[in-house]
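re: that chain from earlier
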Amino acid sequence: MYMCNLPTKKSIMEILLKHLLYGSIILVVLLLYQVTGIHCPIKYFFGIPCPACGMTRSFLSLLRLDIRGSLSYNPMTCLVIIAVLLGFHKKLFNHKKIIDGILIIAAIVTLAFYIYRVFSLNVDV
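^ sequence. v structure.
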């Protein structure tokens, strides 16, 4: 049976502060991308695309409800978004081991697809 713990005022504040911190980090990274012109540090320094390459464009396509465009940029975006949300809010669920299992499966699927995408398709992501 699915059960959800009701959050306390303290846990709500912790969640809000955590979201504020993560949002601030994302904003700083985006500003650095704009200032330096480096859009993917892994690709810039190592010459290979990272598993997240194309996720920003994919996410923006999702916001415009362009599912086909989103999947063409990075098909793992929806899975990663779900995994990140579950990871951030793991405290709210009683079955943390199930959430951990879902996160591990999401990481394995994302990594496997990345390897397939880079080596089998020879796609410059």
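Helices lie at 9-36, 41-46, 55-63, 67-73, 77-88, 96-120.
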